[in-house]
Sequence to fold (115 residues):
Amino acid sequence: MAVTPGRDFVRWLRPAGAALFLILSILTVIVCFTAKGTPVKGYKAPQTSEYYAQHPDELAAELTENLFPKLGKKAAAAVSDGKVAVTAPAEDLQAVKYAVIHYYDESLFSFEPES
Fold:
């Protein structure tokens, strides 16, 4: 039977190394799927997502007045169809989205690039 790079790698790892490799792979996948945004230094959400679900206009004002200035990104928020529509330049949209969903439930928002 021919020796392949994969088979060589497994022989080199041995069972303990293979188990460690498998555990680290699983942990990486878990972290990737459960990560919840990026915190913004100096910002603390004044209300919960449940409160803002009932008051989307207040949420849009909170983002515009407090979160976006601390984030240092050009972004805007407005209420549209019961959700808060967040717009930002295409290059900043992902950073803005990650900051917003760190503090608030993603279902409250729609994220769009500026046109």
Notes: The longest helix spans residues 5-34. The chain has a mean pLDDT of 90.
